[in-house]
Design brief:
Layout: E1 37-41, E2 48-52, E3 64-69, E4 71-73, E5 77-79, E6 86-94, E7 97-103, E8 113-116, E9 119-126, E10 132-136, H1 142-145, H2 162-165, E11 173-176, H3 188-192, E12 196-201, E13 224-228, H4 230-238, E14 241-245, H5 247-260, E15 266-270, E16 285-289, H6 296-305, H7 307-319, E17 330-333
Parallel strand pairs: 1-17, 3-12, 3-14, 4-11, 14-16
Antiparallel strand pairs: 1-2, 5-6, 6-7, 7-10, 8-9, 9-10, 12-13, 13-15, 16-17
Length: about 325
């Protein structure tokens, strides 16, 4: 069941804007994952602590459970053999039939063909939103021809090191286009120091799509597939405090709690849009990276911590020269 909220006030996209000096955008990962800085935000007092991610265990209490997203990023970006066309696989409908975003669109009209490696694809459907359905005559060699779809703000194409670094150390369930970036800070050693469980949400291309309306209640949220297994649901039920690792884990848990009253074993698709006025049912604390201005993700953390406190925290992070976005530093909101 999808619950529609009617707010008595209007929430504007421009309310979530801030100025970020471009040199603070992290286009490359740190050599040590756990060396990232961590801005700790205390919601009750408004206090900030400047720490490092390796200090995370110091903030955990008995009965805490960290919930991480174990999706695995797949190489979903492809180029034609002549380099003139680009394909981003949004959804594999089967091994040889893909729903895709393409450019330039004029080279992907109905019936047009494109070659990637040994495979030739034919555009068999043009969807209303401009996506194409492409049917391949054989399976495309993803390992050889696929690229990671790095966020545009990195200003570069993927490199060999990204295959390992734009992936959490606990990634298992293949299917994401983008990484659940709050999880990128964990090393195997640090993961063993914290009580944890996993959910799966396959991060889609919608995570990069900007909000184009001024009244955010008019924004159409993208849909992503998720799964919560019985073991995780049981551990959450027994936890004193649930700490979501990333906005994707948060969206998964709050979707299930909204639809079922609590976190239970479940799977499906979610288009949940969390913004100020949202009633949280499942999550008590959040570990998250810093997000783009006017994005649905900064709206989510503003719903959780309060818009004014979040924008003050971002000002503090900019003043202290934290690194922003996917390969950047993180924030622990308690």
């Amino acid at each position: 069941m999808h619950v529609t909220r009617c707010l008595s006030f209007t929430v504007l996209t421009s309310d979530f804007d801030y100025h970020l000096p471009p040199e603070l955008i992290a286009s490359q990962p740190l050599q040590d994952r756990a060396a990232s800085r961590m801005l700790v935000v205390h919601r009750q007092t408004g206090q900030f602590d400047h720490r490092h991610f390796s200090d995370l265990p110091e903030y955990l209490l008995p009965g805490d459970l960290m919930v991480l997203n174990n999706t695995r990023v797949v190489p979903a970006r492809f180029f034609s053999n002549d380099g003139s066309r680009e394909i981003l696989r949004v959804e594999p409908l089967s091994a040889t039939r893909w729903r895709c975003m393409v450019k330039p669109g004029k080279k992907f009209r109905l019936g047009h063909t494109v070659s990637v490696g040994e495979a030739t694809g034919t555009v068999v459907e043009v969807l209303e939103n401009g996506d194409r359905v492409i049917e391949w005559d054989q399976v495309v060699d993803e390992d050889h021809h696929g690229h990671l779809a790095l966020p545009h703000y990195m200003g570069r194409d993927d490199q060999p090191q990204d295959r390992e670094r734009y992936q959490t150390v606990f990634a298992q369930a293949a299917g994401a286009i983008a990484a659940p970036t709050a999880g990128l800070h964990f090393t195997p050693e640090l993961l063993q120091k914290v009580p944890h469980a996993f959910v799966t949400l396959h991060v889609g291309v919608g995570t990069f799509q900007p909000v184009k309306v001024e009244n955010i209640q008019e924004h159409t949220m993208h849909s992503e597939r998720y799964e919560v297994l019985p073991e995780t649901a049981n551990r959450i039920a027994a936890a004193q405090r649930v700490i979501a690792v990333g906005t994707t884990a948060m969206r998964t848990l709050e979707t299930v709690a909204r639809d079922h009253g609590q976190v239970v074993p479940a799977s499906g698709s979610t288009d949940i849009f969390i913004y100020p006025g949202f009633e949280f049912r499942a999550v008590d604390a959040l570990l998250t990276n810093f997000h783009l201005p006017k994005s649905t993700l900064i709206m989510l953390i503003s719903a959780f911590a309060g818009r004014e406190l979040v924008l003050r925290a971002y000002e503090e992070a900019i003043r202290e020269r934290y690194r922003f976005f996917s390969y950047g530093d993180c924030m622990l909101i308690l």
